[in-house]
Design goal:
Helix content: 40-55%
Order of helices and strands: EEEHEHEHEHHHHHHHHEHEHH
CATH superfamily: Alpha/Beta hydrolase fold, catalytic domain
Radius of gyration: 17 Å
CATH architecture: 3-Layer(aba) Sandwich
Distance between the termini: 46 Å
CATH class: Alpha Beta
Number of helices: 14
Strand order of the largest sheet: 1-2-4-3-5-6-7-8
Strand content: 15-25%
Largest sheet: 8 strands, mixed
Structural class: alpha/beta
CATH topology: Rossmann fold
Length: 290
């Protein structure tokens, strides 16, 4: 079995949060205003390692290790891992860590869940950074991943489908990570994204629940609520080359929000923290200071 549970020391101190739903891993580094980072499906806190390295001198950086298929701590069998349930996991982590006035940062489906958390618990979130993720004008999940909810209803079938991720060639397919990452990922980090659900039945069970319950309605409802009532600023950090989440939808969302703005991150795909961590960290720092 590969050592797929390794997390970068750049993330800082490892914590285990005991939430009502179940245990959640997270990492904390730095001091100052709180930035809380959420990743998407088949990724983990390592996604943010190089971003944290550049922000921890000025901010408290908290990276969640959400139960989205690349995590280390399985959830109980009865855990709610629907979109609303994943949003509540983020909000519950903020509560257990006693964090308020946070800047919540989400990439990919972690951005969808961050919108759900912010819409339901605006008292804990003062600012929102959405980085290449679903908006109220995208489907959840978007093509070419829109077949995963149906596939994930059969847990064993999902495991067979994900088995293509064992080899780097399979990971580069458009239906895997090919549309999401422009540059090579550190092999150990990539193993940590791709292999946990193939090596632990409890991790596979969790991600099957996450994927099979995914639907657009909760994300669209959260976006509508944020447009209507979220008073804090929202940064949409997007690549003009994004091949999954259209930049035009980010611009439309920014226009509809009370205080929305778009900052383009060049030469990246959807996994911007992997492709352009320096530029993304600069964008987040400038936004959090403003």
């Amino acid at each position: 079995m590969s050592d797929v549970g390794t997390r970068s020391p750049l993330l800082g101190e490892a914590l285990r949060l005991e939430l009502e739903t179940g245990p959640l891993g997270c990492f904390r580094r730095g001091e100052g205003p709180a930035l809380v980072f959420s990743h998407g499906w088949l990724a983990n806190a390592n996604l943010w390692r190089e971003v944290v390295e550049r922000l921890a001198g000025e901010f408290t950086c908290v990276c969640l290790d959400l139960p989205l298929g690349s995590h280390r701590l399985p959830m109980p069998a009865g855990a709610d891992l629907s979109p609303q349930g994943c949003g509540e996991l983020i909000a519950s982590a903020l509560e257990v860590l006693d964090l308020r006035e946070v800047t919540l940062v989400g990439n990919d489906s972690g951005g969808a869940y961050s919108q759900i958390a912010a819409a339901a618990h605006p008292e804990r979130v003062s600012r929102l950074v959405l980085n290449s993720c679903e908006t109220p004008y995208d489907e959840f999940p978007p093509p070419p991943f829109d077949g995963l909810p149906a596939a994930a209803r059969d847990e064993a079938g999902l495991g067979a489908l994900l088995s293509v991720l064992r080899e780097p060639e399979g990971r580069r397919l458009d239906a895997a990570y090919g549309l999401l990452v422009k540059r090579p990922i550190d092999p150990g980090v990539w193993d940590g994204y791709a292999l946990p659900a193939l090596e632990d039945d409890a991790i596979l069970r969790d991600v099957a629940k996450v994927m099979s319950s995914a639907s657009s309605a909760p994300v669209h409802a959260a976006g509508a609520q944020l447009i209507e009532s979220f008073a804090g600023p929202v940064l949409l950090a997007w690549s003009p080359e994004d091949r999954v989440f259209p930049p035009a939808n980010a611009a439309r969302y920014a226009e509809a929000l009370h205080d929305g703005r778009v900052e383009l991150i060049e030469d990246a795909y959807s996994f911007t923290p992997e492709d352009q961590p320096v530029a993304l960290a600069a964008a987040i720092a400038g936004f959090a200071r403003s």
